């Protein structure tokens, strides 16, 4: 792949080594030679084994669990490249940690997403490339360019192929009001499938009570669409509601980020969900349940990196 004379280098930190390797392969480049390890006291050690002077460097690292360790790995890699005179440093963050702390929900709350944005910029990042930020306005927390890629164009073709000619029986369901925009985008790409919304109330943190279904799902195949699945409480309650209250025939789910913390895997296994489709922005859990399927995001990031490096627009990827 031609980059108009630019010297492009892709490096991986520990959380996203597979994605980085696939991105490099898609671009026809070798993965940059580097080591990210720890000293005996737990401090992070970074070593680059090739020159980055004047290069456009793309550092691939999801800031998933262990979140703070992964953030520090990325920051130290950015600093090392900056001190080694890299031409441009891009932080490629498939999953952006702390994105849910994007506002003050109550008095004396931090806005941690803004803090992470400031730290990345101070470390020396020249741009950020990420996917499906929990809140799109986080892009405004940065004083450097941010490309927020969209996972829906990866997810939709899978379900189009899965359902084939029976797509007319599909209803796209948002598990809460916060995901309506995402469900609408999914619906438009799916052929303007009808939409339904789960009206729920959360009596306390991590406890979700489904109250009502806005829309008709009776006898339909349902696809629940969200940006991330964390404890899976919301998702599994929504799946139960569309089956028991709404009378749906089958229920599937998809999301960009599979955080899957706590008892998420057990909840999904015990739920009426037939299949859960995730993107591999976060490495799969070792004890993943049989209902979960992962789709690769490397082709999307590779295309975005190619466009950035050749000064072509990224937005047209999703038109």
TrEMBL record:
Pathway of action: Metabolic intermediate biosynthesis; 5-phospho-alpha-D-ribose 1-diphosphate biosynthesis; 5-phospho-alpha-D-ribose 1-diphosphate from D-ribose 5-phosphate (route I): step 1/1
Gene Ontology MF term list: ATP binding; kinase activity; magnesium ion binding; ribose phosphate diphosphokinase activity
Residues annotated to bind D-ribose 5-phosphate: 202, 226, 230-234
Binding site residues for ATP: 41-43, 100-101
Keyword tags: ATP-binding, Cytoplasm, Kinase, Magnesium, Metal-binding, Nucleotide biosynthesis, Nucleotide-binding, Transferase
Enzyme Commission identifier(s): 2.7.6.1
Domain Ribose-phosphate pyrophosphokinase N-terminal, residue spans: 8-124
Main location: cytoplasm
Family annotation (Gene3D superfamilies): 3.40.50.2020
Family according to the record: Belongs to the ribose-phosphate pyrophosphokinase family. Class I subfamily.
UniProt xrefs under NCBIfam families: PRK01259.1, ribP_PPkin
Protein name as annotated: Ribose-phosphate pyrophosphokinase
Gene name, Swiss-Prot/TrEMBL: prsA
């Amino acid at each position: 792949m031609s980059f108009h004379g630019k010297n492009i280098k892709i490096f991986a930190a520990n959380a996203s080594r597979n994605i980085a390797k696939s991105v490099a392969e898609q671009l026809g480049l070798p993965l940059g030679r580097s080591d990210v390890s720890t000293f005996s006291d737990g401090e992070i050690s970074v070593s680059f084994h090739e020159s980055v002077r004047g290069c456009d460097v793309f550092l691939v690292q999801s800031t998933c669990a262990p979140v703070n360790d992964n953030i520090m790995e990325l920051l130290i890699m950015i600093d090392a490249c900056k001190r080694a005179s890299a031409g441009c440093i891009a932080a490629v963050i498939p999953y952006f940690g702390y994105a849910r702390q994007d506002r003050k929900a109550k008095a004396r709350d931090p806005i941690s997403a803004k803090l992470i944005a400031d730290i990345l910029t101070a470390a020396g990042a020249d741009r950020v490339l990420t996917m499906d930020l929990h809140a799109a306005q986080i892009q405004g927390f940065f004083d450097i360019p941010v490309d927020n890629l969209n996972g829906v164009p990866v997810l939709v073709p899978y379900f189009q192929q899965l359902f084939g000619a029976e797509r007319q029986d599909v209803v796209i369901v948002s598990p809460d009001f916060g995901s309506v925009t995402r469900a609408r985008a999914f619906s438009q790409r799916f052929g303007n499938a009808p939409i339904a919304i789960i009206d729920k109330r959360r009596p306390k943190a991590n406890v979700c009570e489904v109250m009502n279904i806005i829309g008709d799902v009776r006898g339909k195949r349902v696809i629940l669409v969200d940006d991330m699945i964390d404890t899976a409480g919301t998702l599994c309650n929504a799946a139960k509601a569309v089956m028991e209250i709404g009378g749906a025939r089958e229920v599937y789910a998809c999301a960009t980020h599979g955080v899957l913390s706590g008892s998420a895997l057990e909840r999904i296994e015990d739920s009426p969900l037939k299949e859960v489709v995730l993107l591999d922005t976060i490495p799969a859990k070792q004890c993943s349940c049989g209902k979960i399927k992962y789709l690769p995001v490397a082709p999307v990031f590779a295309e975005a990196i190619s466009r950035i490096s050749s000064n072509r627009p990224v937005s047209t990827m999703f038109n």
